[in-house]
Amino acid sequence: MPILSKSLHIKGNVWRFPYVIAQNGGSAAVFAYLICAIFVAWPLFMYELILGQYLRLDFIKIWEAIRPRWLSFAWAQFLLLFICQSYYSMIIAYTLPYIVGSVQDPLPWTDGTTSEQYWEDTILNSYDDLHDKPRGPGPIQWRLAAALFVLWIITFFSVAFGKNILSQVTYVTVILPVVLLIILVCVTVHQPGARAGIQFYIGNFDYRELAKLDVWATALGQILFSLSPGFGTAITYSSLVSKKEDVYRAGLIVSLSNSAFSLLGGFAIFSIVGFMAEEQGKTIQEVATMSGTGLAFVTIAEAMPLFGAAQNAMSVLFYVMLLTLGLDSSYAWTETIVHAVEEVLKSKGYRLPTWQVTLVLCVIMFCFGLVFTTRMGCNILDVSIS
């Protein structure tokens, strides 16, 4: 279940997947995504589970055990995970201002502003024109910096002191997002324009798009980001399970669940995109790409008034869903980083309490993440994940 919770996350399944599909031809990109999942990402993920269980080592020591001179690959993998966790924390932190806004009546993105304007102006405070702005990324936005700080406080205490609690709440943080997403799909697919959005998503298959290498490269990048083979987490977790554990079955369940959740999220997002396109008189692709990688935040905000009198309660639930999806992966990635550093320190004769190692690493990653709280932070984030 911890590995399953790690694979269902905001970055790959909800936040980035719909935007990637919209940018790369709709249903053709879905087809490319599934091919890359079946023939590349799923086998790699299951291989990592097998490797970790068989050798009983974390991902740093596994590379060294296979061939000592390959230790540099392990540190490259560590650096990749460290960088990704530094910017991924900002994506999760975006949910906190939305949760605060969700308790206001009326919802702030329905009171004289649109969901797109709320994202661009209130959440990001981004520059209108990147060619006409002061030099540098701009000042840190206190709202985003505070959200990022709160997120790292939660992550620190959870990883350093709350492992037993985390194992107990994992079932809730996996099941609740699935239930809420199904509810969102049921509500949005009946809205005007939803059919056109879904048609763009899975109906209009243009085989010519498959001749473009960019479509395949982006689809492969998406499933690798989403399932995260190569990040060391699967190896670390599987090294701790019983040798009798059926990691083949676990790997298959996790892989299928990951892609199924992404595809289900696509139905919800593109139903809302179709609804927005009809209201605004624009094409599906225009609406789907105009908010950039903030598409999921914008579309979910747009859907909340559809719940009528329950819109505030449902808005809180849905943004808490995004938060829990993010926190599950954040815990797993941070724990993997901490475990790797602890093992290296032990091999050098140093034994520090876990909370101290966790604190130092969380502070460093928080500082790295501050660049994403600037006025150009989301633009830098877009480049980081490209």
Written account of the structure:
The protein is mainly alpha-helical and 386 residues long. Helices cover 74% and strands 0% of the residues. Helix 3 runs antiparallel to helix 13. The model has no long low-confidence stretch (mean pLDDT 85).
Q: How many angstroms does the end-to-end distance come to?
A: 29 Å
Poorly predicted segments: none
Rg from alpha-carbon coordinates: 21 Å
Provide the succession of SSEs.
HHHHHHHHHHHHHHHHHH
Tell me the structural class: mainly alpha
Summarize the biggest pleated sheet: none
Mean pLDDT: 85
How much helical structure, as a percent, in the residues?
over 70%
Shape, principal axes of CA atoms:
globular
Which keywords apply here?
mainly alpha
SSE topology:
Elements: H1 2-7, H2 10-23, H3 27-55, H4 59-66, H5 71-93, H6 95-102, H7 115-124, H8 142-161, H9 163-188, H10 194-203, H11 213-227, H12 233-238, H13 247-280, H14 284-290, H15 295-303, H16 311-347, H17 354-369, H18 377-385
Short description:
Helix content is 74%, strand content 0%. The protein contains 18 helices and no strands.
